[in-house]
Design a protein that fits this description.
alpha/beta; six-stranded mixed beta sheet; 5 helices; 44% helix; 15% strand; globular
């Protein structure tokens, strides 16, 4: 089992939590992004840079992930593809996507996309709070405990 990170949009605070977890649990964390990233020196942390373009990093993650892996992403279509491959998806606010909730999230995402396409200002996501960071850390720890790492 390894952790894949949709790193282009992943908040720095969440990456830091993942770096600490990688070393503590001795689990591989691979960040995938279009742009170069600085990562700490660790045998458990890797970085894969992909070419430019829409969803290139997402496609690479889906291509490489295996059943049981964890993907950290706020991207709903990537989370859905992850679940379709019998892997797990966790968003940076600590919500674990499941077969039970991903279709609803995908429908809501598509609805909001249609609203934006018709000119309705929908706003963006709220700033990541300390509470969100703690929820993510707790969800990650819980997940890692379940897989006995």
């Amino acid at each position: 089992m390894q952790i894949w990170v949709d790193a282009d949009a992943c908040p720095a605070a969440i990456k830091e939590i993942l770096y600490r977890a990688a070393n503590r649990a001795r689990v591989r964390v691979t960040l995938v992004a279009n742009q170069s990233l600085r990562i700490p020196a660790s045998p458990y942390i890797r970085f894969t840079q992909v070419g430019p373009g829409l969803d290139v990093a997402d496609r690479r993650i889906v291509e490489l992930l295996e059943e049981g892996d964890l993907v950290v992403t706020a991207d709903i279509p990537l989370a859905a593809a992850t679940i379709d491959k019998n892997a797990h998806a966790l968003n940076p606010r600590g919500e674990l996507y499941t077969k039970d909730n991903i279709r609803e999230r995908l429908s809501m995402r598509n609805f909001m996309d249609e609203l934006r396409g018709s000119g309705v200002a929908t706003g963006g996501p709220a700033v990541l709070s300390q509470r969100d960071r703690q929820a993510f850390a707790n969800a990650l720890d819980s997940f890692l405990a379940k897989v006995n790492l």
